């Protein structure tokens, strides 16, 4: 009698053959196990004693199914070619750990395979097979759900998005002293429809303001869509072509609805690749308008003389990190360098670079899979060495995942370096025409400091976290900026202090012993006296947000993903407290 | 020449070749039954965007050891690869020369070249066996087929080198062994990893097409 196969295993095998195209079939059949790919993978280089990180070994975990069920020799004498079937959900879980946890789909092994085996492509297919039966990291499930249901991968609500745009618009109007400076929304018949990454709304709204400043000074006829504005696409990471196609279609249809001339995609590697290159294939859509990276748009503005930049304004030394999706899958590696060269003076090339660059380790959706974080940081050793060797003060990248991935590596390996993006550098280098009222150039460091110190003056903030280090960090940052901070180390203590102190804001850790953050949050919302308290959920595991989503109460005012840096903490608290 | 050797060097080889060709035809049909992916997006990138250029580049990438880090940084392994595969061409060529053009081997230069190539490939085969058996990472990724195919070719190179003078007057063992091994090799190939050369044009074609459309191929230098 044959072994009984689980329902999920049945489904995976059933869908395997349907998902295979000619490129994947030959890639799966062609590997000769020469081992040449091994030295090209950052996971292997950082884990030299563990041969299971080799790309060919990882690929074999899918290849054995292909050989057993699709190819011929493996059907007759499976042991001869290491063909093997799958029977249990536990085996599928093991496959999940390989395809999600040990590979970022960076494609470095693909371009180094003498046979032309495109491992990254079928690794993505393997992810898709597992996702189709619900086997995936929690973070992938949460983010995919947000993108399906809310329309963007960070679950940003429309009102929050519009609020952020208005907030940035006000800041720009103040900076230019001109109420006519706009961040247009849903303006019809524009030359440019500008799409962004939801991370910009939640954690880095400055990039939106910087882009708006550039468009304004270039005299661009542009708009941002009120919906369908998320150019990121978790379908690329989850391997779910249906999600990938649907997300792309949402964006394309909005551009057509607005009768936009072209879609400009802000700096994001996977967003650019998905929107520009892959979603038309996933969704079988022939896109009728031009799509380009904002890097190219900014470069063209400078070349055409529509904006003027002065590279002296960006002090320090800079190196450029090529995002895998931009460089290895979209050929976008010369334009960013050309642009960087126009806005900074001291550039130090990183080696290897362009299509040979190493992954930031945050690609392939790795930033949302917190269960693999230790492994990710360990494999980041290669990137850390690469960064350190440049001796630069700043690493510039055109990708939001890379920003987060590199920030983590810099912190973990204690490098003296900061991460920035081209849009920030271009905005900083802008030469503002005389007619525009500009704040004095040297103002920010000297004058804004005392102003910033009083950002939270008069505000009482309760920091709830079981980790003393986090409490100390939050407290010192918030107190330095004028807040009165009180602390609680567990849920019960937090509720007591809430009642006694009535803080304006609570930063609430989710994962705590005893009464967890989810329970505390629900208790706050259900208590008439406390229900209006503003809450910022803080967690190192995005999938735990489900503890919040599943509760029948009004959502929190904000989220923060650990690790949190000073700037992000201040930005988010300001936003939640509506301090402009 | 005995009837047995004549059969082994002529009819047996023809049977083996026809068998291989038939199996390959089925194999190609099998490959073509999978749908080819369609590229709908406009080309991106700064590389050559002509599909033909990138596909040709991809096919000949292996002949440019400087183009890939994996070959550039491991030149000794790359040299082994070249010697091994040139040895395959020489040993296969020998199976046609002996029955259909034995006069060619009367040229000492040609005979010595084929011999050297076969023995050099044999030595590389030994090195490859040592690497595959001695290295833990290689053992982890190797299947019985990987070991057997490598062993088969290494022994075959050895006999091809010995058989090159085509001298059966002192005994037919070497030539018989070479031709029977050649026939087995030809029939076994489509079922083993050795058939990778059949897939090579396909994998490289699609990788070249994909990366060409994305301006990645031909590769731009990204190292010191």
UniProtKB/TrEMBL annotation, chain A:
Example of a GO MF term: metal ion binding
Database matches in InterPro entries: 4Fe4S_Fe-S-bd (IPR017896), 4Fe4S_Fe_S_CS (IPR017900), CheY-like_superfamily (IPR011006), Cys_rich_dom (IPR004017), Helical_ferredxn (IPR009051), Sig_transdc_resp-reg_receiver (IPR001789)
Spans traversing the lipid bilayer: none
Keyword field: 4Fe-4S, Electron transport, Iron, Iron-sulfur, Metal-binding, Phosphoprotein, Transport
GO biological process entries: phosphorelay signal transduction system
The 4Fe-4S ferredoxin-type domain, residue ranges: 94-123
SMART domains: REC
UniProt keyword Iron, yes or no: yes
PANTHER family, A to Z: FUMARATE REDUCTASE IRON-SULFUR SUBUNIT, HETERODISULFIDE REDUCTASE
Protein name in UniProt: Response regulator
UniProtKB/TrEMBL annotation, chain B:
Protein name: NarG-like domain-containing protein
Cited InterPro entries: NarG-like_sf
Keywords for this protein: Membrane, Transmembrane, Transmembrane helix
Superkingdom of this protein's organism: Bacteria
Xref: Gene3D superfamilies: Transmembrane di-heme cytochromes, Chain C (1.20.950.20)
Phylogenetic classification of the source organism: Bacteria, Pseudomonadati, Bacteria division LCP-89
Transmembrane portions of the chain: 15-32, 75-97, 109-127, 147-167, 173-191
Signal sequence bounds: none
């Amino acid at each position: 009698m044959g072994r009984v196969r689980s329902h999920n295993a049945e489904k995976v095998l059933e869908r395997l053959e349907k998902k295979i195209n000619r490129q994947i079939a030959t890639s799966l059949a062609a590997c000769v196990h020469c081992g040449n790919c091994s030295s090209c993978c950052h996971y292997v280089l950082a884990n030299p004693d563990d041969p299971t990180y080799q790309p060919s070994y990882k690929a074999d975990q899918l290849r054995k199914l292909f050989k057993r069920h699709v190819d011929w020799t493996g059907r007759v004498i499976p042991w001869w070619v290491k063909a093997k079937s799958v029977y249990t959900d536990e085996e599928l879980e093991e496959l999940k750990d390989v395809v999600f946890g040990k590979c970022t789909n960076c494609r470095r092994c693909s371009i180094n395979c003498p046979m032309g085996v495109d491992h990254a492509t079928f690794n993505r297919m393997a992810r898709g097979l597992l996702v189709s039966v619900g086997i995936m990291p929690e973070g992938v499930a949460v983010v995919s759900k947000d993108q399906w249901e809310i329309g963007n991968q960070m679950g940003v609500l429309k009102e929050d998005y519009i609020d952020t745009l208005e907030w940035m618009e006000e800041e720009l109007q103040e900076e230019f002293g001109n109420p006519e400076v706009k961040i247009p929304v849903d303006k019809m018949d524009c030359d440019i429809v500008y799409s962004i990454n939801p991370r910009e709304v939640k954690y880095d709204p400055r990039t939106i303001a910087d882009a708006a400043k550039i468009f304004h000074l270039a005299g661009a006829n542009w708009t941002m869509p009120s919906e369908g504005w998320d150019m990121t696409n978790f379908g690329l990471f989850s391997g779910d072509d249906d999600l990938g196609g649907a997300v792309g279609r949402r964006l394309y249809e909005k551009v057509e609805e607005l009768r936009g001339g072209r879609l400009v995609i802000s700096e994001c590697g996977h967003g650019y690749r998905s929107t520009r290159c892959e979603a038309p294939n996933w969704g079988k859509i022939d896109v009728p308008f031009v799509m380009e990276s904002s890097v190219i748009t900014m470069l063209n503005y400078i070349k055409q003389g529509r904006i003027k930049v002065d590279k002296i304004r960006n002090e320090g030394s800079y190196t450029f990190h090529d995002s895998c999706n931009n460089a290895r899958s979209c050929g976008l590696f010369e334009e960013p360098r050309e642009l960087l060269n126009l806005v900074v003076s001291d550039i130090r090339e990183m080696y290897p670079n362009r299509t040979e660059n190493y992954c930031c380790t945050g690609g392939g959706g790795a930033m949302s899979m917190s269960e693999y974080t230790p492994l990710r940081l360990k494999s980041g050793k290669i990137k850390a060495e690469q960064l350190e060797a440049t001796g630069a003060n700043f690493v510039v990248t055109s990708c939001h995942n890379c920003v987060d991935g590199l920030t983590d590596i810099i912190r973990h390996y204690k490098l003296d370096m900061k991460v920035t993006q081209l849009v920030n550098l271009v905005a900083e280098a802008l030469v503002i025409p005389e007619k525009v009222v500009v704040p004095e150039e040297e103002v920010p460091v000297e004058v804004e400091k005392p102003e910033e110190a009083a950002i939270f003056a008069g505000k009482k903030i309760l920091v709830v976290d079981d980790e003393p280090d986090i409490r100390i960090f939050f407290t010192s940052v918030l107190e330095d900026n004028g807040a009165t901070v009180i602390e609680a180390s567990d849920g019960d203590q937090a509720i007591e202090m809430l009642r006694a102190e009535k803080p304006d804001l609570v930063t609430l850790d989710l994962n705590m012993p005893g009464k967890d953050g989810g329970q505390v949050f629900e208790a706050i919302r259900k208590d008439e006296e406390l229900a209006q308290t503003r809450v910022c959920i803080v967690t190192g595991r995005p999938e735990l947000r489900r503890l919040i989503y599943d509760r029948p109460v009004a959502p929190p005012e904000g989220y923060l993903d650990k690790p949190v840096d000073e700037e992000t903490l201040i930005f988010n608290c300001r936003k939640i407290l509506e301090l402009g | 020449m005995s009837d047995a050797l004549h059969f082994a060097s002529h009819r047996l080889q023809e049977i083996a070749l026809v068998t291989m060709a038939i199996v390959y035809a089925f194999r190609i049909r099998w490959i073509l039954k999978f749908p080819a992916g369609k590229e709908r997006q406009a080309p991106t990138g700064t590389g050559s965007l002509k599909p033909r250029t990138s596909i040709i580049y991809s096919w000949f990438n292996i002949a440019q050891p400087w183009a890939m880090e994996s070959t550039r940084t491991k030149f000794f392994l790359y040299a082994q690869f070249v010697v091994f595969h040139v040895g395959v061409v020489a040993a296969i060529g020998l199976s046609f020369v002996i029955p259909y053009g034995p006069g060619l081997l009367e040229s000492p230069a040609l005979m010595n070249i084929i011999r050297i190539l076969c023995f050099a490939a044999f030595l590389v085969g030994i090195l490859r066996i040592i690497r595959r058996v001695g290295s833990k990472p290689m053992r982890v990724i190797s299947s019985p087929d990987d070991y057997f195919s490598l062993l088969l070719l290494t022994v075959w190179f050895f006999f091809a080198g010995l058989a090159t003078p085509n001298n059966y007057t002192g005994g037919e063992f070497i030539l018989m062994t070479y031709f029977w091994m050649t026939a087995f090799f030809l029939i076994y190939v489509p079922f083993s990893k050795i058939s990778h050369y059949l897939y090579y044009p396909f994998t490289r074609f699609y990788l070249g097409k994909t990366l060409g459309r994305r301006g990645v191929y031909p590769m731009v230098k990204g190292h010191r």
